[in-house]
Amino acid sequence: MAHLSITNAAADQIRRVLDERGHGLGLRVTVKPSGCSGYSYVLDFADEAANDDVIFEDHGVTVYVAPEALEMLDGSEVDYVSEGLNRFFRFNNPNVKDQCGCGESFSV
């Protein structure tokens, strides 16, 4: 069975954005071919669940993962971090074999 965890910081940010939007079920995650290393994460907010979504719940929030991304994301932790003036979701993904220097893309 696949596993994906969500940190408290990520859960707080997901709740904050959903509250600001006034609607939505949770965070939607998929991957797409991109960048110099192979794939990049694609994040959006889910307003409805697709029939084939794999659903993970942690800290009171829900993350919807597209089935084609599940193998690449299995075992990952979704975090929300601040680095200087930048704030962003970060994936601590044990499946990543290599990533580009800018951190925008990865390979598995």
SSE order and pairing:
Layout: E1 4-6, H1 8-21, E2 26-34, E3 38-46, E4 54-58, E5 61-65, H2 67-73, E6 76-83, E7 86-92, E8 98-99, E9 106-107
Parallel strand pairs: 1-6, 2-5
Antiparallel strand pairs: 2-3, 4-5, 6-7, 8-9
Family: Belongs to the HesB/IscA family.
GO molecular function, one term: 2 iron, 2 sulfur cluster binding
Protein name: Iron-binding apoprotein IscA
Characterization of the model:
This protein is α/β, with parallel strands linked by helices and 108 residues long. It has one domain: HesB-like domain (Hypothetical Protein Aq_1857, Chain: A), CATH 2.60.300. The chain has helices at 8-21, 67-73; strands at 4-6, 26-34, 38-46, 54-58, 61-65, 76-83, 86-92, 98-99, 106-107. β8 (98-99) and β9 (106-107) form a beta hairpin.
Order of helices and strands: EHEEEEHEEEE
CATH hierarchy, class: Mainly Beta
> In this structure, how is the largest beta sheet organized?
4 strands, mixed
Let me know the CATH homologous superfamily.
HesB-like domain
Q: What is the CATH-assigned architecture? A: Sandwich
Give the overall average pLDDT: 87
How much of the polypeptide forms β-strand, as a percent range? over 45%
Tell me the overall shape: globular
Strand order of the largest sheet: 3-2-5-4
Distance between the termini: 19 Å
Q: What is the CATH fold-level name?
A: Hypothetical Protein Aq_1857, Chain: A
**How many structural domains are formed by the residues?**
1
Please give the radius of gyration in angstroms: 14 Å
DSSP strand count? 9
Family: Belongs to the HesB/IscA family.
Pfam family, one: Fe-S_biosyn
Domain Core: 3-104
GO molecular function: 2 iron, 2 sulfur cluster binding
